[in-house]
Structure formats: C-alpha cells, structure tokens
Specification:
- The chain is of the alpha+beta class.
- The protein has two domains: 301 residues, 3-Layer(aba) Sandwich (Beta-lactamase); 126 residues, Transcription Regulator spoIIAA (2-Layer Sandwich).
- It contains 16 helices and 13 strands.
- The strands form three sheets. Strands 2-1-8-7-6 form a five-stranded antiparallel beta sheet.
- Strand 7 and strand 8 form a beta hairpin.
- Helix 2 crosses helix 10, helix 5 packs across helix 9 and helix 6 packs antiparallel against helix 8.
- It is elongated and about 90 Å long.
- The N and C termini lie far apart (60 Å).
- Bound molecules: 6-diazenyl-5-OXO-L-norleucine.
Length: 443
C-alpha cells in the first residue's frame, strides 16, 4: 500500500475501529424488510476528485438507498426543468421537521424542500413519464450514472414498503388536495418507493456524493451526470435541509452537505474535495445512522473538513514581487532601465481570491507605481473566467495609466476567444516580456 493510500485508509479504519462498538439506535421498523438488517454491519468509504477509492469495513455489503436517493432525483428534476420551474412545486426552505412530517407551505401546499418525503415525492412526480422513457427508468439510469455502475432494485424491500407505506400515500393525497400539481403525486409514490429500494454499497454512495462534489462529473469515469450549477444547487439544499430537523446542528458541528437514509446510509460531500459515505443500520431519532454520524463528524473534525473552516492558504498564489533588475542574469548596462520594470509572478489555479492577490501584488510591484509591469503566468495551471476578467481588467487599468504591460503567458490563459492579444502584450517567457518592457523603459 502506498503512503497516500495508507494514510486515508488508516483514517477510515481507525474510525471504523473506534465506532464499531458504538451502541444505541434502532433499526427502521416501519418498513418490515429493513428491520431484518444486520445491526452490526458498518462500512465507510471516501472517493477523491481524482477517483481514488478508499474504504474500511463492510464496503461491499448491499443495502437500499432510501432517502439518500432524494438529492439525486432532485438533481434530475433540476436538470430537466431548471431551478425556477422546480421551485414552483418544491420550495428550498428547511422544515425543521421529521422526514415524514406534513411539511407543506400554508396556502399553496408546496412542500418545504426536496429532502423531506413530501418534497421528494413531488420531485419524483416532476420527472417526465413517457412510453419511450418511463419515469422510473430515467431515475434508475440517473442514480446509476451518479454511482458509475448499473444499479438494480431490491424487490423485497420495495414490496415491503409498498405494502406498508400508507403514510407516504396519505402525504401524496394531501399534496394533491392542496394545490394544482403538474403531475399526480399519488401515482408517483409507487415510483418513489422503487427509487428508495435501489440497491447500493457504501462505495456507490461515496461515488454519488463525489460526483456532486466534483461539479456533476463522476470522478470514477469522467462522465458528466449533471451540470455544475445543478450540482451546486443540490449540495446547497443538502446543506440546509439534508438532515431534516437535525440539519442546523449537523451543519454547525460537521459542516458538510449531507443526506441520511433509513436503511443506515449517510453521504457527505466536501465540495471540490471528496465524497464520503457511511453505512450502519441503527438509527437515531432523526433517522440518521448513529455510527455514520459519529464517523463522519469525527473525520470532519480531525481532518478540518468543515466548510466554514477552510481559509485559503495565504501566499500560495503570488510567488514573486520584484523589479526586473533583481532577476538573475541582468545584461550589463541594463540595470537602471530594469529597475523601472515591475515583475509579479503567480502559480497554480487562479480564481477570484487568487486574482485579487495577484492584482494587489501588481499594484505593489515597482517603485512609485510607475514604469512597466510584467505579469508572469508561466507556472499558472488554470484561470477561471472570473479571474481572467479581473486580471485583464487590472492590466487594462495599468495600461490606461500609461504603464507598459506585458504578460508571460505561454499557454494563452489570459486570452479570450477572438482576442489573440489579450489585455497586455503576451510573450512565451518572462525574459522576453521583461526584455520588451526594458527596451522602452527610460532611465
Ligand atoms: O419514505 C420513506 O419512509 C423511506 N422510503 C425513506 C425515508 C428515509 O430514508 C428517511 N431518512 N432518514
């Protein structure tokens, strides 16, 4: 086992050992088949944005996805209809109530959010049902693509819930009675039961969470499952509503978008970092796996994964702020002219935060904020559209102040389509950019 593999697997194994003996919680008895689960089953899995898979314990034991299906069906509805249309039928407000509560808006009957049963049934109802593409077929295909493999249905669990699921049917009738719906939630409830009975492993759940964390692209196979905005919308609703009446406490303590299910599955996503999943059937009073909550909470704490505790590392973007006379190998006789050429270099992937640092460095570089400016992007690996616009704007402002501006940008990262020159004169290397600025610098 390599060093990296060992470190992550060891962290999962340690949590597994710590909590395997944790008692407490009850099996979900209201679906008779779920009451037959092994209360000792316990698995943990983590999948990175590069598709690296790590697990501990019962990683291959199949169980039904239950409510962990809800964010993914919501994602499908958002993909097909868009946020505005979906929001006409399902709100995105935390209900502060149990998963099976009558969480319907006064007056309209609109469910609070797509994570509680009422909203999940409506999200399922919103998925088009046509002879060519039946509703459940679309849902199973979508869940499978999130997992990166073909999933199937546990028919026994489906039959067990279908035989006993009167509360969900009652909810569906209530929703239909309170407002005009585009589709029939009563018919959709049977599809909802089937979607809850889709069989997964904890590694499948980690892949599904990782796909949301990875902007909608499955990190195992590179397939785009949903758009980046849809992935962000789903993670947002998971963060505020995914743990029902424990959502606020979960976000406060664990700090990750998450979703629980009554079979004992829990997912948590670290945006742009990882997908995490736990499986252990005994549940607390909010319908969350007791060991799952402990393991994910502790991992978040130990590895500093809380969303609100991730300040960007200072100083990691700008690698150099100087004047060209300070660079190695200054040609004889050019020192004075090179003093008037400010140089700032950046590295890595540039986003809003990084671009702000680079622009600040450009302002600071150079004596008296006069003279030419060279921005060295040779070691930059990526620039997002926001950072590109900021850097181009900053260089344009410097140029408007009468300062000669050049970039070392061999990969053309600052260029925009149809604009070969960019905001500043572009060169393949820092030396060429400096030479061009020096040639005209007075002094
Ligand atoms: O609707 C139900 O009752 C189940 N099929 C799913 C509920 C669920 O998983 C709630 N999550 N903790």
């Amino acid at each position: 086992m390599s060093a990296a593999t060992g470190a992550v697997t060891d962290a999962l194994r340690e949590l597994h050992t710590s909590y395997a003996g944790a008692d407490g919680g009850e099996l979900a008895g209201y679906i008779p088949q779920l009451a037959l689960a092994d209360p000792g089953a316990f698995g943990l899995a983590l999948i990175s944005m590069d598709g690296h898979r790590y697990s501990a314990g019962d990683a291959d034991v199949p169980f039904t996805v239950q409510s962990v299906s809800k964010p993914f069906v919501y994602a499908l509805a958002l993909s097909l209809l868009g946020l505005d249309e979906v929001s006409r039928w399902v709100n995105a407000e935390p209900s502060g109530e149990a998963f099976n509560a009558i969480s319907l808006e006064h007056g309209t009957g609109r469910p609070s959010n797509a994570m509680v049963n009422a909203g999940a049934i409506v999200a399922t109802a919103l998925i088009p049902d046509t002879p060519v593409a039946p509703r459940f077929g679309r849902i199973l295909d979508c869940l499978s693509r999130f997992a990166g493999r073909a999933l199937d249905v546990d028919e026994e669990v489906y039959a067990s819930e279908a035989a006993t699921g009167d509360r969900n049917r009652a909810l569906a009738y209530l929703i239909r009675s309170t407002g005009p719906l585009p589709v029939d939630p009563v018919a959709a409830v049977e599809t909802y039961f089937r979607q809850c009975a889709v069989r997964v492993t904890v590694l499948d759940l980690a892949a599904m969470a990782a796909t949301l964390a990875h902007g909608g692209v499955n990190p195992l196979n590179g397939e785009r499952v949903v758009s980046e905005p849809v992935a962000a919308q789903v993670l947002t609703v998971m963060a505020t509503c995914g743990m029902y009446d424990a959502s606020g406490d979960w976000l406060l303590r664990v700090g990750l978008p998450a979703k629980s299910g009554v079979s004992g599955g829990v997912i948590a996503a670290g945006p742009a970092r990882f997908g995490l999943a736990a499986y252990s059937p005994p549940l607390d009073r909010t319908g969350t796996s007791v060991r799952g909550r402990l393991a994910i909470g502790t991992l978040s704490d130990r590895l500093g994964l809380h969303l609100m505790r991730n300040p960007a590392l200072p100083g990691s973007t700008v690698t150099l702020v100087t004047t060209a006379d300070d660079l190695p190998a200054v040609p004889a006789g050019e020192r004075a002219r090179r003093q008037r050429v400010a140089v700032a270099a950046a590295q890595g992937a540039l986003d809003f935060t990084a671009a702000e640092r680079v622009l600040y460095a450009l302002d600071e570089a150079g004596a008296g904020r006069t003279g030419a400016v060279v921005l060295d992007l040779v070691r930059v690996t990526d620039i997002d559209t926001v950072a590109r616009a900021m850097l181009r704007g900053g260089l344009a402002r410097l140029a408007a102040d009468g300062r000669r501006t050049a970039v070392a940008d061999p990969d053309g990262r600052l260029r925009e389509p149809g604009d070969d020159t960019g905001a500043a004169r572009s060169f393949a290397s820092r030396e060429e950019a400096v030479a061009w600025c020096t040639a005209t610098a007075s002094g």
